[in-house]
Design goal:
By secondary structure, the protein is α/β, with parallel strands linked by helices. The protein contains eleven helices and ten strands. α4 links the parallel β7 and β8.
């Protein structure tokens, strides 16, 4: 499996607090069946991570993984807050490209409220050559109340990433219900851990894949789609077929 959302870099945001914690998270990822992991530190007002700092820490952690003989491929990235988009130029955004792919950006929406300018910002980024991946929208009150609002974005080319702990119930019943509604309606493209520490949203990607209840779909969410982003390849079709229009009609 491939996990394209984690806060594994030490001391850079609210994720791993030390190199040892980072290595513990990496060991847990390998034990869970993950072969590649994207380091996606927060890029927001309270954690204004510079691209060069992310890149430096990825290099140091890669060396530590090799020294500890932990067989995990560590990829670059960043979880960019919506309000930071206007503050970053295209070169910086490309350096934060998800899984080292400069064409994909992992975007975090505000914790509360649905940005009125979201469609405009997404369109502008697409014109500039970026594909947006929305991080954990199932945890948004607005999406929980109206999951279909994601459909309008997906039809415009936006991808949706669901937190593993939402799918298997570790984040509560509401997040679980919304996550499964999004998956069942074809409004999700991948699962990711969003792991912050061994004790906070632990990896658990395999448990979430089992909770999907469809092996082919789980493989698409945890291997095929994230793998295509890593390889900069075309996204594979959803295995159970059914486009958005058909799924909306259920």
């Amino acid at each position: 499996m491939i996990d394209l959302h984690s806060h594994i870099l030490p001391g850079i945001d609210d994720g791993a607090d030390s190199l040892e914690t980072s290595l513990e998270m990496a060991r847990a990822a390998v034990e869970d069946g993950i072969t590649a992991l994207a380091a996606t530190p927060h890029v927001r007002s309270d954690w204004p991570t510079p691209a060069e700092e992310m890149e430096r820490l990825v290099g140091e952690l890669r060396a530590a993984l090799a020294e500890a003989a932990i067989p995990l491929e560590l990829l670059t990235g960043g979880e960019i807050a919506f309000e930071m988009i206007a503050e970053l130029d295209d070169e910086t955004l490309r350096r934060f490209g998800l899984a080292g792919n400069p064409a994909y950006l992992l975007l975090e929406l505000p914790h509360y409220g649905w940005p009125a300018t979201l469609d405009h910002v997404v369109f502008d980024l697409q014109i500039r050559g970026f594909t947006i991946v929305l991080a954990h929208p199932e945890r948004s009150l607005e999406v929980q109340g109206e999951p279909e609002r994601l459909g309008r974005l997906i039809e415009k080319g936006v991808l949706v990433q669901i937190t593993a702990a939402s799918v298997d119930g570790r984040l509560g019943a509401t997040a679980r219900k919304t996550a499964h509604r999004l998956i069942d309606r074809g409004l999700a493209h991948m699962l990711a851990s969003d792991a912050h520490a061994p004790w906070l949203r632990a990896i658990g990607l395999s448990h979430a894949a089992e909770a999907v209840g469809n092996k082919a779909l789980a493989r698409w969410l945890t291997e095929e789609v994230p793998g295509a982003i890593v390889a900069d390849a075309p996204l594979p079709p959803r295995p159970d077929g059914g486009g958005l229009r058909k799924l909306f009609g259920r």
